[in-house]
Amino acid sequence: MEKLVAPSILAADFGNLQRDVEMVNNSKADWFHIDIMDGVFVPNISFGMPVLKSITKHANKTIDVHLMIVDPDRYIQTFADLGADILTVHYEACTHLHRTIQAIKAAGMKAGVALNPHTPIAVLEDIIKDLDVVCIMSVNPGFGGQSFIENTYKKIQQLRNLIEFSEASTLIEIDGGVTDQNANKLIEVGADVLVAGSFVFKSDNPTDTILNLKNIIN
Length: 218
What we know:
Layout: E1 4-7, H1 17-25, E2 31-37, H2 49-58, E3 62-68, H3 76-81, E4 86-90, H4 97-106, E5 110-115, E6 133-137, H5 152-166, E7 171-175, H6 183-188, E8 193-196, H7 198-201, H8 206-217
Parallel strand pairs: 1-8, 2-3, 3-4, 4-5, 5-6, 6-7, 7-8
C-alpha cells in the first residue's frame, strides 16, 4: 500500500490560510491533518469550527481531524457536518471509548484513536478491529515544532504486531517531529501515514518538501 503524507495545518500561515490549503491541494500530499485544541486537554488553543469550515471549503483532499479536546463526544456530529472524513479522538480523553468510536462511524466518518507518548499500545487490544487509524503521538501534544521521541519506533512495532495478530486493517499514523531524517525508519518499522507540520510549512519550498517526503517513503 502507498504510504501517505499529511501536512499539519497547525503549522500553516494563518494569515494566508487559503494559499497554504491550495498549496497542499496542488502538492503530492494525501491528507490534510487538522489539530483542534481546547486549551484544557492540551496547554494550547488552536482553532475551532469557523476556521475548519474555511479550510474544508477550499480543501479537495481527505480531511483528517485530530481532536485534542476533553469530552469529544459533544462535537462528533458537528465535525461530520463540517466535512471531516476521519475523526481521531484521544484515548486519554474518552471514558467510554468504544461508544465514542461507534458514534463517529454512525456519523459517517472513519474513526481514529490517538495515544499520548506515555500511553501503552496494549490499551487498544480490545478495540483495534474497530479502528480505521491509530495516531501515535511522537511528541507531547499541544505545540508544533517539538523534537521527536525515540521510543516511538518501539511503539510502532508493537502496534504493527497487534494489528497483524488481530487481522485488523488499521492504519498507523505518526504525529510529531517527522522529518526527512526519520521518515524512512518510521515506515520501515510499520507506519502508514506521516503527519508533518513545521518541517513542511517552515521549509523554503513546501511543495518540494512534500514531494521529497513522498519519494522517501514510497
